[in-house]
Model the fold of this input.
Amino acid sequence: MRESSSAAASKLPDYLRDTYTWAYLDHRTVPWLDSPVVVSAILWGNASRLMNRAVAEFEPGQRVLQAAAVYGDFSQRLARRLGDSGQLTVLDVAPIQIANTRRKLAGWPHASAHVADLAEPVGEVFNAVCCFFLLHEVPSHARRLIVSNLLDAVEPGGRIVFVDYHQPRWWHPMRPVMAMVFRYLEPFANSLLADSIDRLVPECAAFEWHKETYFGGLYQKVVGVRRSA
Ligand SMILES: C[S@@+](CC[C@H](N)C(=O)[O-])C[C@H]1O[C@@H](n2cnc3c(N)ncnc32)[C@H](O)[C@@H]1O
Done:
């Protein structure tokens, strides 16, 4: 599963290179986009609330996989929640993002970050998996592969937590703005909004699902618990 940064650098997915170089692969923009003010603004002031809702799904002492790097202090919050007896593993396909995550997790010896493409099998099983705002940034085919691989990485009785965009209600004042954002900056988001995460792939059938929406439906948290037997 894990490989050296130089080997992985040449294997960045086309969609990431073509669409999101400015957001995730450019040394000039990464520090700026990683700042708390920008993270909060991008989620219309909801970043802290959404991060707290995700992190609260995990228990101290668990071994948790964080699927892809997240800007701001999300990984530190998760590491703090899991505590010294827990273990946090962050996997991301972009070496620059792994370097940035390692820097942020330097004070957390029970947390580590590695280069890996989540469209390929994870190769390990965890107590739980967290996927925060990744799915809207990948095309449908890659999204299905990623969800399938993440579900396979959840142990029996374990849980998977997705937090991502959702179709806002018809009256939402930000709906026209978000339509423009999705059209020009997030071209794969509409295909996520048209789908139900809990039915994306056949492996979903092995889980019990629960969904909550926030901020007029613009955001969703979808939690699946793998049946034990
Ligand atoms: C988690 S998502 C978006 C998070 C959100 N916008 C934020 O940071 O607040 C962005 C990350 O997903 C990573 N990513 C995209 N496709 C991936 C894949 N197939 N495997 C692993 N990481 C991937 C990118 O490299 C990037 O670091």
